[in-house]
């Protein structure tokens, strides 16, 4: 593994930004020397900003690559490599690839299982040394489904499942409590008539009544078997959060109200919001805006959700909002690393993985100029 010194950078540490050089040996950070000195053979960053590699806990980007258009199943190896390369190019060095488990095999609005096969293809490429960055799994356990128990049983501790999130997309509650917005989304996606939509809603509510409770219990048990962190999804009320806390959930993805976010903090649950919500000034579903939670102090972690480049953009947007670059960068580095137990990365500190990103800003927009993952330049 190549040793290198990244010199003359504005290095973002935990609580400050210092002009310094960072030495990398055997994939780890071995020294941080303050000053503008550029030793012989070092890479002169010329005052660019050096931050830890971004840690992405929730992204649908791989799903987008394997299905770039409706009913198109793209060759999976090519899709995985394109996804991996895209993330490296925007500064992500560790990703938890979101894959849905729990399917509805038949009928209009159905969706079939895919996660087990896709995960196996991902791990085969990793074993072959074809991936640029670190990959883990984030299994999105859809309790409003038919096959959740069977699908989760196909995974085990060897599958690097780092997160299991409890998803409940039953119409009329949580993210989809506004049925008019759900109707608009579903009809556009699946070309449904009004009657089709009504039947779809009835079917999903019936599935939740029949399987929901046992699916939720099974998902919690399977997360423990994998050794994964549990996450909730779209908590809306303080009661939702109380149930999450009783399950041992440590991470709340996209709470939909200030009430839920506040309750999460009261229970010691980290709050994650999507970068598109922050950048666009609100949620497409009409839920609480991420910037509101940021201003109230209830925002801990950012995910790119469905736009990988949004992760870096949102971090610098927060830095401007808070006037705190180290604090903002922590929402996409140190805090997500701690939330999932990866204590060997997410900060620029001696002994940690050399996952680093070189940044400059052009008209306020962060531009990635170099990416190192475990000491190897990948972007």
What does this entry look like structurally?
The structure is a single chain. This protein is an alpha/beta fold and 379 residues long. It folds into two domains: 1-52 and 345-379, Urease, subunit C, domain 1 (Roll), CATH 2.30.40.10; 54-341, TIM Barrel (Alpha-Beta Barrel). It has helices at 61-66, 76-89, 115-127, 148-153, 179-190, 194-226, 238-247, 258-266, 275-280, 290-296, 310-322, 325-330, 334-339; strands at residues 4-12, 17-25, 28-34, 43-44, 49-52, 54-59, 92-101, 134-142, 161-167, 229-233, 251-253, 270-274, 301-303, 356-362, 365-373, 376-377. The strands form two sheets. Strands 1, 2, 3, 4, 5, 14, 15 and 16 form an eight-stranded mixed β-sheet that branches. An eight-stranded parallel β-sheet has the order 6-7-8-9-10-11-12-13. It is globular, with a radius of gyration of 21 Å. The model has no long low-confidence stretch (mean pLDDT 91).
């Amino acid at each position: 593994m190549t040793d290198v010194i990244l010199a003359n950078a504005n290095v973002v540490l935990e609580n400050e930004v210092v002009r310094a050089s960072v030495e990398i040996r055997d994939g780890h950070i071995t020294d941080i020397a303050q000053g503008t000195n550029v030793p012989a053979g070092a890479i002169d960053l010329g005052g660019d900003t050096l931050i830890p590699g971004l840690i992405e806990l929730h992204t649908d980007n791989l799903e987008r690559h394997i299905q770039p258009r409706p009913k198109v199943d793209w060759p999976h190896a090519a899709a995985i490599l394109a996804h991996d390369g895209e993330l490296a190019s925007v500064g992500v060095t560790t990703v938890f690839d979101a894959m849905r488990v729990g399917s509805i095999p038949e009928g209009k609005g159905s969706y079939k299982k895919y996660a087990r096969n896709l995960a196996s293809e991902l791990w085969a490429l990793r074993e072959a040394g074809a991936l640029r960055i670190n990959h883990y799994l984030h299994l999105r356990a859809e309790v409003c489904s038919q096959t959740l128990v069977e699908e989760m049983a196909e995974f085990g501790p060897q599958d690097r499942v780092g997160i299991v999130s409890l998803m409940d997309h039953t119409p009329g509650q949580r993210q989809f409590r506004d049925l008019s917005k759900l109707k608009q989304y579903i009809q556009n996606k699946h070309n449904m008539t009004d009657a089709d939509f009504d039947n779809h809603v009835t079917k999903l509510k019936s599935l939740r009544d029949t399987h929901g409770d046992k699916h939720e219990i099974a998902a919690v048990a399977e997360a423990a078997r994998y050794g994964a962190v549990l996450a909730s999804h779209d908590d809306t009320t303080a009661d939702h959060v109380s149930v999450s806390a009783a399950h041992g959930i440590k991470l709340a993805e996209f709470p939909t109200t200030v009430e839920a976010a506040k309750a999460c903090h009261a229970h010691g649950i980290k709050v994650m919001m999507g970068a598109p919500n922050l950048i666009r000034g609100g949620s497409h579903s009409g839920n609480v805006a991420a910037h509101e939670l940021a201003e109230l102090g209830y925002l801990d972690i950012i995910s790119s959700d469905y736009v990988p480049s949004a992760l870096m953009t949102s971090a610098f947007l927060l830095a401007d909002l808070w006037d705190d670059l180290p604090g903002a960068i922590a929402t996409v580095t140190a805090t997500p690393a701690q939330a999932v137990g990866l204590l060997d990365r997410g900060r620029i500190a001696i002994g940690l993985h050399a996952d680093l990103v070189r940044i400059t800003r052009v008209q306020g927009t962060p531009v990635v100029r170099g990416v190192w993952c475990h000491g190897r330049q990948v972007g």
